[in-house]
Amino acid sequence: MGRVYESLDVKGRPCWTLFDTGSRNTYVVREVAKLLATTKVDQPRRTGLGGAVRELTESAILVASVNGRSLDTHAFVIDELASDEQGKPIEILFGALAMRQWGIRPLPDEERLDLSRYSSEWVEY
């Protein structure tokens, strides 16, 4: 079973992204966060990620597109993420909450994204 990597376009900059259903939240590295609106969090958050506990002190609004479809979601800013199997640094870890919000489904066996449920409109009650 493979992982699903795709390039997200952030203000014209391609960012190597891991779509990870095992991660609840979304994370962006500081280099990507420079392109986004960021804010300090009131209280630092701790997360176990990549075999270490990390303290998160900043969050961002990730505005990007994937395969020509726009999206925006909350992301935590992190110093670094892991690299993929070929050693390419992961710049965005796109988590399960954001995938659910946008109707994105990773297909690891095919190493691609299913965007057939992509949400461009919402009905709120």
Describe this structure in words.
The protein has 125 residues and is mainly beta. The chain is built from two helices and nine strands; from the N terminus they run βββαββββαββ. The protein has helices at 30-33, 96-102; strands at residues 4-10, 13-19, 27-29, 37-49, 52-66, 69-78, 92-94, 105-107, 112-114. The strands form two sheets. It has a seven-stranded mixed sheet. It is globular and about 35 Å long.
Shape by Cα distribution: globular
CATH-defined architecture: Beta Barrel
Using DSSP, what is the number of strands? 9
Average pLDDT reading: 93
Helicity range of the residues?
A: under 10%
Strand content: over 45%
| Low-pLDDT stretches | none
Largest sheet: 7 strands, mixed
Distance separating the two termini: 39 Å
Biggest sheet: strands side by side, in what order?
A: 1-2-7-3-6-5-4
Structural class: mainly beta
Number of domains: 1
Instruction: State the CATH topology.
Output: Cathepsin D, subunit A, domain 1
What key attributes describe this structure?
51% strand, 2 helices, single chain, Cathepsin D, subunit A, domain 1, seven-stranded mixed β-sheet, mainly beta, globular, two-stranded antiparallel ribbon, 125 residues
Explain briefly what this protein structure is.
Helices cover about 10% and strands about 50% of the residues. The chain has a seven-stranded mixed sheet with strand order 1-2-7-3-6-5-4.
Topology:
Layout (H helix, E strand, L loop, with lengths): L3 E7 L2 E7 L7 E3 H4 L3 E13 L2 E15 L2 E10 L13 E3 L1 H7 L2 E3 L4 E3 L11
Parallel strand pairs: 2-7, 3-6
Antiparallel strand pairs: 1-2, 3-7, 4-5, 5-6, 8-9
